[in-house]
Amino acid sequence: MREKISACVICFNEEKKIERCLQSLTWCDEIVLMDSFSTDRTVDIARKFTDKVYQQAWMGYVGQRNLVREKASHPWILYVDSDEEISPALRDQILEEFEKGTGPYVGYEFPRIVYFLGKWIKHGEWYPDVKLRLFKKEFGRTEGIEPHDKVVVNGEIKRLSAPVFHYTYGEISDQLNTLNRFSSIAAQQRFVQDRSLIKADLIFHPLFRFIKGYFLKRGFLDGTHGFIIAMSCAFTAFAKYSKHWELVQRHRKNFKEFPDDSP
Fold it and tell me: From CA 55, how far away is CA 146, in angstroms rounded?
């Protein structure tokens, strides 16, 4: 008898994508969903697939994932984002692994392929974007620095070849909104951690990101899509370091305006 799997999903206002996501998880032994008080039909749709729907104000990716993990009943956890879909091929590979026994492995990773502006992206920084998303609950948890969470496990990992599908931005304006949000989170994290910042970061980090994504990782093979992605990755880096610089300048200004009056 194979070990059981709990599919764990976190979401907020994903009524257009959540059904596709949950439909791809019906083969799992349970679906657990943690919603951040959606204002659309996300929760109503989710309840068609599971009665294990919880709500929690947003605590960040790390906190939200660890919370939904604790709500799971079974020994294996499968993390899936609300804008993702477990491909039939990946489902079959996972079930094959579990039917024959997982042996020494406590975690499985697999590639994620992005559907962007009507095209599957197969090069550049967005592919293969390998993610460790399936793991034994007692051996793993989510860690990382916002907004970049990752699963860390204590034990052996195996890589599967079939992908998870990621249906990302519906249009470029969606991408820009996410870019703005993520760069703000990342800049705040750098500021809180008192990370060093030099003006050259504003030039060389964005430049390197473009060269890495477009040339070194052959993003140019995805045509105009690849160029847009490489440019957006470069601008994300520029926005992050610019916002970090802004936070530093604001802090210095406030410090000068309110000096320490102690003797």
Answer: 20
